[in-house]
Amino acid sequence: MSDACIYDRHLMSRLLRQLAVWSSFFTVLFLLSVFMDRMPTFLKSDPGLVMMLRYLAIQAPFWFWKALPLAFLGASLSVLEEATAGMEIIALESVGVSVWRIEASVFLLAGALWIAGMSGAESYAPSFNTSASTFLRSRIQKKDMHPKPLENFVAKASHGRYFVFGKYDPADQTFERFWMDEWREGSHVREVFAARGRYESVSGLWLLEQVSQRLYKGTGSGFRPAESLYSVKPSLALELSEDPSTLLPTSEGYEEMDFPRLRELMKVYRDRDVALRNISAEYGARFAWPVSFMVLALIASAVLSALPRRLFQGKLVLFGVTVAVGLAYWFLASLAKTLAAHGILPVDIASWGPHALLATGALLVKRNAG
Q1: Residue 35 burial by CB count (10 A; 0-12/13-18/19+): exposed, middle or buried?
Q2: Cβ–Cβ under 8 Å, residues 105 and 12
Q3: Are 237 and 208 in contact (CB under 8 A)?
Q4: DSSP tag of 313
């Protein structure tokens, strides 16, 4: 094994150790912030130390992933600064090895984290936070988590269908005083009334009882309505593309949903002609966020190239630079997402623009410093 390969392994090992230290520090810091925020709830419920620690442990993976960009920046700055201060760059140049050899490990790790984010880490990390919220309500606050029946529930579904439930029980998917109104390409198709019914999840059928149905023929003209055929039946089985669970309002925020759920909901919204700005902005911002690891690697290299070496004396300065750059990055990405949610910026520009802007700035700074 060549000396260069041995050095690469040593550099990567040092980078991973620094990443573990920085990520642990920021994760604990975030969890302490959550603990202080939930302190009034803990004091009121008195759950005990074990339950509080379980609550924090459940959401630890979520905050670890959130802390990872900051931790990666801090680890990269630390390793590159140590390599510069230890004359490693001069030693490599003296034997004809490019300075990029030192930065290669940083970019290699950044690429691995980018792939991890695109492979599911960014998508499923919020599920840990959602599980922690459920644990808080059910085990600490001891709230009843069973879904409550809904009354006078109205929903617009896909394919021009409108639903009204006088009463709907999500627990067993039974309903009373049911009405469905269906339109297709501007034409009235049918109305279905039922005294009661239930949704059979195995067969995917809506099983209705005491049913009256009106089928419309033609579109009508002027003030003359379309012809209709009225019928009354003791029971009727409907096979629809919707099921009652897809019509329910959800309290789950877009930021808590994984990518498949967001894509599914976006498709439903398109079918129902519902505005997509908020959910599209959230999906685009989270889908693009893993590339931030590559951008932060560029920023770390540019910062050490541009700023005087005497500034980097001790971990406290590196911590300050890490937090300042991280907050600026987060503010720019959040601002772009907000502008996209309000329709001021296109979603694609808001999602990828901050990363492209900061990457371009880092490259220009590094080029001028070089």
Answers
A1: middle
A2: yes
A3: yes
A4: -
* 285 within 8 A of 350, measured Cβ to Cβ: yes
Spatial separation of the C-alpha atoms in residues 343 and 346, rounded to whole Å:
7
* Local mean pLDDT, 10-residue blocks, the chain (370 residues): 68 91 95 94 89 95 95 89 69 65 86 94 92 88 70 76 88 90 82 93 90 77 58 90 74 80 79 75 94 94 72 69 90 94 92 95 84
pLDDT for residue 251:
55
Tell me the C-alpha distance between 212 and 150, whole Å: 23
Continuous H helices in the chain: 3-37, 39-45, 49-85, 88-94, 100-116, 122-135, 244-247, 259-271, 277-288, 292-306, 315-341, 347-369
State residue 222's pLDDT score: 42
> Tokens 């627990």 identify what position?
171
